[in-house]
Amino acid sequence: MKKSVFERLLSLETPVYYYDMDLFRKTVDLLAETATAHGVKVHYAVKSNNEERIMRYIASKGLGADCVSGNEIAWAVRCGFPPESIVYAGVGKTDKELTSAILAGIGAFNCESLEELRILDDLAGRCGRKARVCLRINPDIDAHTHQYITTGLEENKFGISEYAFEDAVRIVKSSPNLIFTGLHFHIGSQITSVREIFAVEVAKAEKIVDWFESQGLRVDHIDLGGGLGIDYDDPDGDPIPDFKGWIETVATFRHRPDQVLHIEPGRSVAAQCGSLLSRVVYVKEGRTKDIVILDAGMNNLIRPALYGAYHKVDNLSAGFLRETGPEREYDVAGPVCESADVFGTKRLLPETFRGDLLAIRSAGAYGAVMSSHYNMRGDAPAVFSDEL
Ligand code: LLP
After folding, report:
1. Which residues of the chain fall below pLDDT 70?
2. 3-class SS at 291?
3. Domains, the chain, ranges and CATH?
4. Distance between CA atoms of 68 and 304, rounded to whole angstroms?
5. Which one of 43, 48, 148 would you pick to mutate in the ligand 1 pocket, going by the greatest count of ligand atoms within 8 A of its CB?
6. What pLDDT, in 10s, does the model give residues 25-41?
7. C-alpha dist (Å) from residue 195 to 117, 141, 145, 227, 265
8. DSSP secondary-structure letter at 106?
9. pTM above 0.85?
10. Residue 257 C-alpha to ligand 1 middle, in angstroms?
11. What is the position in ligand 1's atom list of the atom closest to the CA of 136?
12. I need a surface site. Which of 52, 162, 185, 207 has the fewest CB within 10 A?
């Protein structure tokens, strides 16, 4: 960050989400170019960040959207995503949500259970429409990531498992209002062994696609989900995630020219361009360590409390406003009345004082979208680097 940017940030009320729009645009542009070069279609996972400016820019690049609720679909359409570019996953889509999505004419319902298929067929019939359907497959693959964000193991609630494949084929074939389009996979999030893990997904998905085609279904749409990880330890090292490694691996999928590969990145798109900015309210001196208490809390960014996730913390004031001495060890906590409201323990920071401006890094994805009003606390608004 440049000093001039920091100086402008100093006038902001905190907590606030700050988005570096140059980095954001560079990231999206590279994603779009890499995907186009390999003939892969991208659907941005709206759940990761639904800021209007973020959404509109992604839509303007011709990417589609991956939604998981009726509200996300309505919002994506308002932000410029054409309905036919929208895919819709989720294990608990309600009748109301399904009906609005049928009427909107979305690109594909990624159906997660046999019962959902039957209900979707029935609702589409009542609307006098046909619904394009992909089966979300549970491929039973271990993505080697946090247990809360592993989604492709048989014990997870997501997708249709192998034991139900034959029934799924039967239902699809006998449902007059469903147009079978393809298969959908998503094995987890924050995957860092990119080429290795996604190659396992590709190999398994190829077998499953072959099996469905052997049953007389044409699998035109092959969606391999999201999951590309980012570097939380060193957000400045290489702030643009490994789209090349991911998309090249996905593109090795053996497919005919009439079959299109799709992916659904979320975290990798906006995580590194966002920081949660917060001021130090107090520095509480302890017997063994000091605790920096911020005006941002777990209600603004829940990842550390929920997943034990690491987010780098930078003291911007120390970096820009004064000569700093040796670093000291601090716990960095929020003000919420929960012991879990801690952003980091034993963090090495320059000597830190009340009023310092701190940045909690890599917070652009699964940050603001997961916030709550616990303790009647407010939302952290968004500011964009090019509007300061
Ligand atoms: N597609 C599907 C079907 C998904 O379930 C997800 C994420 C994505 C795509 C996007 O995955 P990504 O590229 O972001 O890894 N709140 C957690 C992450 C939950 C991810 C849920 N599904 C976190 O903060 O780490």
Report:
1. 145-155
2. strand
3. 3-16+272-387 (2.40.37.10), 21-269 (3.20.20.10)
4. 23
5. 48
6. 999 999 999 999 999 99
7. 33, 15, 15, 12, 15
8. -
9. yes
10. 29
11. 3
12. 207
